Amino acid sequence: MVTDEVKKLAEHIFQIHSGIEHLGLIDLEGHVVLDQSSKASVPNEPDTNRVLFYSQVSSRRSRREHFDDVYGKTTYIHIMREKMQQLMIYIPMFTVYLTLDHAINQDEVAIIAQSVHNTDSEIIDRAAKSLFYK
Prior knowledge:
Number of strands: 5
Low-confidence stretches: none
Number of helices: 5
């Protein structure tokens, strides 16, 4: 069950840019917190492949964090594919996975990533705490 606080975080992220097509919120242990299309009014129940994908996204974050002292922290990862763009953003307590409209340029991608990073910490904290204190 997705909490109201997690839904508020998702709403905030979707409002950042109209080119955000899909949102996945993954906790630091790799669990899917939310999986939702921008066109849907409610979160999806992710299928097995998407759950596995999100788990792999989470494990990549932990492997990247191993190099933080040497190279600095990873703020976001942008992947341009033939049919879509993917954006992974690391915020406290969550990895934000977005698919973006293919027409969004790299400057806009950077602005989206920075806007997610600039999300009010209270919104993020409430979402994270809502998962522990149900």
